[in-house]
Design goal:
- 2 copies of one chain form a homodimer.
- The first copy, chain A, has a domain at 38-48 and 80-216: Endonuclease Chain A (Endonuclease, Chain A), CATH 3.30.870.
- Helix content of chain A is 31%, strand content 18%.
- Chain A is built from 6 helices and 10 strands; from the N terminus they run H-E-E-H-E-H-E-H-E-E-E-H-E-H-E-E.
- Chain A has helices spanning 2-30, 83-92, 108-119, 140-145, 180-185, 196-212, and strands at residues 35-36, 39-44, 97-102, 123-128, 149-152, 162-166, 170-174, 188-194, 244-247, 252-253.
- In chain A, strand 6 (162-166) and strand 7 (170-174) form a beta hairpin.
- The first copy, chain A, is elongated, with a radius of gyration of 25 Å.
- Chains A and B meet through helix 1, strand 1, strand 2, helix 2 and helix 5 of A and helix 1, strand 1, strand 2, helix 2 and helix 5 of B.
Chain lengths: 256, 256
């Protein structure tokens, strides 16, 4: 009897050990539908490619899948992927909301993509710089005409951000102004990240600016601005500007 | 005898099970010195604060620790943290190398920080835009004078990046041009990330540009450039520009 008990105990112990080791694998197998978070960097200048297929009506390519770029289009441009097409795909993945915080916006392809999202019922909000929204070729007027909400600054400084947030889930940010000149000629970078913490912080920044640029506070003549970029070497004390910086919760690794 | 064998087997199985479960905890305990990866976003405009203490000689604040900003300084400026001071700290943490890829660089504080790193023996390399490096107030001349290697483009497009890589480990990138005007007046963002994959890709971009801007290929008169930012609505086919985009290996989470 005692021998039987020990046999049972031994078998149970072995079974327990195996179960404890196998359990994580089982859980991982059950969670095998998990999706990888998107992390990507796009470098420019971008090859000039045909992006017409990306601007077709929704339904031809399910969300998250790449629409085939046909060779039957006779435009004469290459039909492969490019940094511009990947940026457009990231935008056109929007299904619920799109926040744009852009210093300058004159790219017709990106403008069409944003208007298409608005037509599809995506809530689009745009913040831009008041000087650059008025330049020849700006897409801002077309966005307003389509009924998209656009707000702008009236500050001395520039609204120099170049970011977008898609569905409150994907952050698109970098050095790129959304202009054809920049896309096709400049050395630029654009990060595309599914990152809850960065998205949250950039959305907070967007909402701060959105509220501050309340149209009920607009005056007719914006204040004259300093020249862009390389200003004379003058340090100005005070100025009452707030600084905003956030340290995110971080992941860990072995110390090397 | 058989009973004893079963007793031993059972004990061994239990011990094995416990050991397998305890082992990961033991390893984690041994690795308890691991450091959290840095992830931060800085928003501008930055409050104007005194940054003199950050520019003292090395030794007063060990690497990774924050040097105290004294109130005994009589400059009249606030001595707290600001987005600029945090950016300077990220730079001044460099101990081995610093790659700068900057469209415009005129901030005297950031210029002093970079020259200080060079004096400390950090290998500093700078890539910049040929038009903006020549503007009044640019720090590029002071960097060259100090013996720092600086290369520039001669392209039609702008070298519009605004990134830095510290010790081949920390990426600093965003919308911010390193000018006093931008730091103190513009709405800008700067990401600071310890991220092996992003660092690797940005370093590859830097090395591509560094090699391409080989000084032995300089001509005396750079080609005239298009105006910055909002260009007329002209799409140019061809151009022979390469597109560079990279999708990073990603982390996982449960699908929601």
């Amino acid at each position: 009897m005692k021998r039987l008990r020990w046999q049972v105990a031994a078998a149970a112990a072995v079974g327990l050990a195996l179960a404890l080791e196998v359990l994580p694998w089982v859980l991982r197998w059950l969670r095998s539908g998990r999706r990888r978070l998107r992390r990507e960097v796009l470098f420019f200048p971008s090859q000039v490619t045909c992006t017409e297929a990306l601007l077709r009506a929704r339904g031809e390519a399910p969300a998250g899948e790449q629409a085939a770029l046909p060779d039957c289009c006779l435009c004469g441009l290459p039909h492969g992927e490019s940094s511009l097409s990947r940026l457009m795909r990231a935008l056109l993945a929007a299904r619920v909301s799109l926040e744009l915080c852009l210093f300058a916006f004159s790219s017709p392809q990106l403008g069409r993509a944003v208007r298409l999202l608005h037509q599809r019922g995506v809530r689009v909000r745009v913040v831009t710089d008041c000087d650059y929204m008025a330049l020849n070729g700006s897409q801002i007027g077309l966005l307003r005409k389509a009924g998209i909400q656009v707000r702008h600054d009236q500050d001395l400084g520039y609204m120099h951000h170049k970011f977008a947030v898609v569905d409150r889930r994907v952050l698109i940010t970098g050095s790129l102004n959304w202009t054809t000149q920049a896309i096709q000629n400049n050395r630029e970078n654009v990060l595309i990240m599914e990152d809850d913490e960065y998205v949250r912080l950039f959305l907070e920044e967007f909402e701060r600016i959105w509220e501050e640029f309340d149209p009920t506070k607009y005056t007719f003549f914006p204040q004259k601005k300093k020249s862009h970029s390389c200003a004379p070497l003058v340090s100005r004390a005070g100025g009452g500007s707030l600084s905003w910086y956030r340290t995110l919760g971080t992941s860990s690794r072995n110390q090397t």
